[in-house]
Write a structure and sequence with these properties.
158 residues; mainly alpha; 71% helix
Length: 158
């Protein structure tokens, strides 16, 4: 898979992620008018929280595995910004990590609009908890990026 195709994979995963939470899973009956109050009182479950933590958790795993990958490829932490080993796998891993970071960062811009929609549509109020959980985890991941060694962080941000 080429690095340019990785973004399409993440977009498809994001669509499946949203479809899961909106209830378009196979085998689930559509809520009728009589069921609307029961659906409105639905509480967030552990399974939904786990799904909302999936993308930030996967990014964090990918980011720190890239740090280990670079350390093993060079035999040391990078000394300069242009200190790149000539490896196809490392370039692909770096590009995939950047795609994941971009997807996660841009999705944070959509969260406020999603929260407003969830609070307007009464049936979806329980979904707001998942969005808040996702946003908090994504912001935590962006902060935890700075736990990597400084020379790796400078290399990655270049």
């Amino acid at each position: 898979m080429r690095p340019s195709e990785i973004g399409l994979v993440y977009a498809a995963a994001a669509c499946m992620y949203v479809a899961y939470f909106l209830g378009f899973r196979r085998g689930r009956a559509a809520a009728g008018a009589a069921e609307a109050p029961a659906v409105a009182r639905r509480r967030p479950g552990l399974r939904g929280v786990a799904w909302s933590l999936f993308i930030p958790g996967a990014f964090l795993l990918m980011y720190f595995s890239l740090a280990v990958h670079l350390r093993l490829a060079l035999g040391r932490w990078p000394l300069t910004i242009g200190d790149n080993p000539d490896s196809w796998w490392l370039r692909t891993h770096t590009e995939a990590t950047w795609q994941f970071l971009g997807t996660m960062a841009w999705s944070l811009l959509i969260v406020p609009a999603g929260l407003i929609v969830c609070l307007i549509i009464r049936r979806w109020t329980y979904f707001a908890a998942y969005l808040i959980c996702y946003a908090a985890a994504a912001l935590l991941c962006l902060a935890l990026m700075h736990a990597a060694p400084g020379s790796f962080l400078n290399w990655f941000m270049d």
